[in-house]
Amino acid sequence: MRATRAVLLGVAAWLAVVAVGSTAVWLVISRAGEDVGATTRAPLRAAATAPATPSQQRTVERPDRTRSSPAQPSATPAPPSATPSGSSTPATPATPVAQTRTWQGVGGAVTARCRGAAVSLVAAQPDPGFAVEVGDRGPDALEVKFEGREDEGDRKTELRAVCVAGVPRFAARTEGHADE
User: Where is the composition biased (Low complexity) (predicted)?
Assistant: First the structure.
C-alpha cells in the first residue's frame, strides 16, 4: 500500500512540475513574439502584383497585450503612501493603455499605436508593386504614402492617422486606377 502511495505521489509531483514548466515556457514564448517586427526604420520595397481595391480597405484591430486592458481585472491598488506629516498623497495617474490598429488598402498596410493622444508608427508594409514613404511618425499625427511602381505607376495612397480617444483613427486618400 505504501509503495502504491509513493508511486502515485511521485506521478502527481511529476505532473505538477510538467504543468508549471509548460505554462512558464508558453508564457515566455508568447510574450517574446508579441513585438517581433514591431519597429520599422526604413521604407520597404517589393515586387509587382495586384494591390487591394478601395472596397477591400479595412482597419484591423490588434490590441496591445503589453498592459492589461480596462476590461481585464487588475490588481488591487496599493494604499497611498504617507508623507512625514501623516497625510496621504494622491495616487499617481495610470499610464494610458496602448491601443494598436492596422489599416490595409491600396498600396499596403500601416500599423499605428496610440498611448493616450500620442500616435506612433509600428509598421508600414507596401504591397508588391508599391513603395512606401513615411512622412511624419508622430506623436501628433502619422503620415504614410504608398506610390505605385511599374504597372501601378499612377496609383498613390496618402494615409494619415491620429489618436481619437486613445485609439488610432485612419483617413486615406487614393488616386489613380489599376490597369484592367
Answer: 45-54, 83-102
| Rounded CA separation 14/16 (Å) | 5
Long-range contacts of 140-147 (CB under 8 A, 24+ apart): 142/110, 142/112, 142/168, 144/110, 146/106, 146/107, 146/108, 147/107
Q: How deeply is 32 buried, as exposed, middle or buried, from its count of CB atoms within 10 A (0-12, 13-18, 19+)?
A: exposed
Q: State the total domains in the chain.
A: 2
Same domain, 159 and 106: yes
Measure the CA–CA gap between 73 and 113, rounded to whole angstroms.
Answer: 23
Residue 77 resides in a domain? no
Least confident of 33-47, 55-69, 78-92, 164-178: 33-47
Is the domain of 122 the same as that of 166? yes
In this structure, the answer to whether residues 44 and 13 fall within a common structural domain is no
Domain span including residue 114: 37-62+95-180
Label residue 176 by pLDDT band (50, 70, 90): confident
pLDDT tens digits, 76-104: 444 454 445 555 556 666 778 999 999 99
Its sign, for the CA torsion 45, 49, 52, 58, is negative
